Structure formats: C-alpha cells, structure tokens
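Retro notes (design track)

What went well: tokenization of the new backbones is finally stable.
What didn't: we kept losing track of which sequence belonged to which structure.
Fix going forward: every design gets posted as structure first, then sequence, in one message. First example under the new rule, 88 residues:
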C-alpha cells in the first residue's frame, strides 16, 4: 500500500475508535421491562411489567403465571388504595 492510503486508513480508524459505542451501534429501545418484583415467600411473587406504554400486575408461582390487573387503565395515582364496588 502507498503511504497516503495507509495514513488515510489510520486516520479513519482513529476517528471511528473515538465514536462512543452507543452512538455507533444503535439499538432499539426495549419494549418489555420488568419494573418491580415482590417475593411472597418461597413459592410466589408479584411483578409490575411494562410493555410499551401499558403496565400490568402479574402474580406467579413455580408452576403458574396470572395477570392480576391492567395498571395502565387505573386512574388512581401511586399509593391509592383500590375501592370495592358499591352495592346497588
């Protein structure tokens, strides 16, 4: 190789190495996230799971998994207690 080509490639490699990896290798943001978990002893747990803009309360054991509530539909703020339906 000629000296000019070697210098050009060397300069290009040096510039690429200075680019932060997070900008060089773009990765899509994850859509599924585990927000919080709570152990209920040796066999059970509660978890808040987020998918895109929705949040779900999930309960599970060693052998099963159940959707307990869709938290994205809730209009109550954090720390609010659920209210029972009023008898008619």
């Amino acid at each position: 190789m000629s000296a000019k080509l070697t210098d050009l490639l060397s300069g290009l490699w040096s510039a690429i190495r200075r680019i932060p990896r997070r900008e060089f290798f773009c990765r899509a943001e994850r859509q599924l996230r585990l927000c919080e978990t709570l152990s209920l002893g040796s066999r059970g747990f509660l978890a808040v799971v987020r998918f895109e803009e929705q949040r779900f309360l999930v309960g599970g054991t060693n052998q099963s998994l159940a959707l307990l509530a869709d938290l994205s539909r809730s209009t109550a703020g954090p720390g609010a207690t659920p209210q029972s339906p009023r008898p008619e």
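Added context from the reviewer: Residues 3-73 form one domain.
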